[in-house]
Every structure is written in C-alpha cells, then in structure tokens.
Amino acid sequence: MSSTPMNARQDAILARLSGSNIPVSGDNLADELGLSRAGIWKHIQSMRKQGIEIESYTGRGYQLKSDVLSPGILNRQLGDSLIGSTCIVLDEIDSTNREVMRQAEAGADEGLVIIANRQTMGRGRLGRSWHTAENSSLALSILLRPSIEPEKVPQLSLLTAVALHRALSKLAPNIGIKWPNDILYDGAKVAGILTEMRGEPGQVHAVVIGVGVNIRRPESGWPKDITQRVTDLSTASGKKTNRLETALAIIKEMELSYHEYLTNGFAPIREAWWQAHAASGHKVRAHGSDGYVEGIAEALDSDGALLLRVCGELQRFIAGDIELMGTN
C-alpha cells in the first residue's frame, strides 16, 4: 500500500484552489496558509512534478486544472457527514474493499471512505475482475456498521444502487439499475457495486461497500476480457466528468440514502430501486447456476431477490445475473 506523496500543506493548497472557479493569488494563498510566496511557489512546483496540472496567470495567481482526488478537498466539501467523516486517498492498493476491511478489523469508525487511483486486485461480483485505470475510473469503498441482522445486509447493496442512480443521474441522463446492482447508461454498464460483510450469527460487525465507476474511456481502450457492453460517465454526459465531483456526489447520496434507511427502513429504498430498475415489468433472461429462465420482472422482494413471473408462476432469484430482452 502506498499513499499519495502530497504533504498537508500541498493538500491545503489543492483544497483552496479546488474551491475557486477563478485563479487564486499567491499572496492570498500565503496569507491563508501561513507561508511565504516563495514557499507557495515551491509547493506548486512540487505538485506539478507529481503530474498535477496547475496553471499560472500573471498578476492573477494559480488555478487547478487536473482531476485531483485530495483528502483535504473531500473533507472540506463533506463537512460533518457520517459517511466520509474520514477520507483516505491512496495512489495504489490491492483493493479498496480489502483495505477498508483491514481498517474495520483494526477498529476503524463507521463512515470511513478509501479511494484509490489504482487497484492491482480490484474485484467485482461473482469473482470477476474490476479494472481500475489511473485517472479514468473511480474506485472507492465505504465502511458501515449498521445495527441490522446479517440477512438484511443485501438491502445495503440495493441502497447503494439507489444512491449511485441518484448521484450519477445528476451528471448524465438515462441512468438505470440492472438487478442486482449494475448501473447502466443506455444499456451499457457504467458502474458496479461489491458488498462484503464481517459478522456472526445474529450480528453484523462491519459491512464494506465497494463502488467502481468508469469516468472516461481508458486511453488504451477497454480491456479485452470485458465481455459485456460498457461505457463511461463522460460519454454518457457528453462532457468531461472528473473523479472528484463524482466521488462527492456518490458519498453525499450515500449519506442521505443510509440515513433514510436507518430512519424509515427498507420500504422507501425498495420502491426507489424498483422505479429506477431498467427491467421493471419487462421480459428478462435470468442466468443462474442451473442455466437460465425467461420471465417478466414483477417485483423486488424484501431480501433483494428478484421475483419473476415464469409461465404464470412467481419464481425467486437470489443470486446470478439477468439479461434485458430486446436490448442490444
């Protein structure tokens, strides 16, 4: 594991620059941070060597141009939220879910968020790999410690899908959910969710929610081992989308959805999920360990199972994947 080489003062400079749509003068930065102008310039130069694009404007100051994920920026924007109460940004990690689980087992508080620029062993559902390309995708994981029964943990995956749908719909049109927790744009996957738990019979100790979002198409193209249709948020929105605004949107919606769940239970989340589900009331092909069946997606059960009407009878699907019939 390696963290970003940025020090606290550089992080503070980035937080200040990110909060302004116009250049910030070196004098203002120096006064606010208790540094000399020469000190500010040295930190700016150091960050440029790290690949961060900061423009200088004569007589006006500095302006941030890069898509930078900074704990200082995140903490400033999130304020006193539970989710994101602690944000850690890493250059590289095996898996953000694994790291959050390690932190959970060491006693980390609920609300911890870890984001990585690169994952070497990113994972998706059903043992699939999740590719995290530097600067073109977002990988973040959240630690929750809800007082719920272990059998209700799948509800948190559906809650996360609702939060993702709400967050990404603010950035791009035509966002939908595909059971159980894929996020689609026009039928192509743009984001995914992986939920993992530590607990014992009758008690949940920790739940880790992993989220991966394709922000922009990798320069080298999509990896060849991806067999499903995929796309990215920038393509979906028709404009350049950055990881910072996406991360903030997701964390803020997770905060709202989690509070709604703890206050009002699963019913409002279940209804919101069904309204956003791309196949609600439509014909689907459900793939499981025993092959597949075709039916009409009729409802979502309280445990997250998809209810299909197959040859006049209602069948429950707890695990597997579905294919939307009549779509490309």
What labels describe this entry?
328 residues; alpha+beta; 9 helices; SH3 type barrels; BirA Bifunctional Protein, domain 2; 15 strands; 5-stranded antiparallel β-sheet; Arc Repressor Mutant, subunit A; 8-stranded mixed β-sheet
Explain this structure to me?
It contains nine helices and 15 strands. With 328 residues, the chain is an alpha+beta fold. It folds into three domains: 2-64, Winged helix-like DNA-binding domain superfamily/Winged helix DNA-binding domain (Arc Repressor Mutant, subunit A); 71-275, BirA Bifunctional Protein, domain 2, CATH 3.30.930; 279-324, SH3 type barrels (Roll), CATH 2.30.30. It has an eight-stranded mixed beta sheet, with helices on both faces. Helix 2 (26-33) crosses helix 3, helix 6 packs across helix 8 (243-264) and helix 6 crosses helix 9. It is elongated. The model is unreliable at 1-5 (pLDDT under 50).
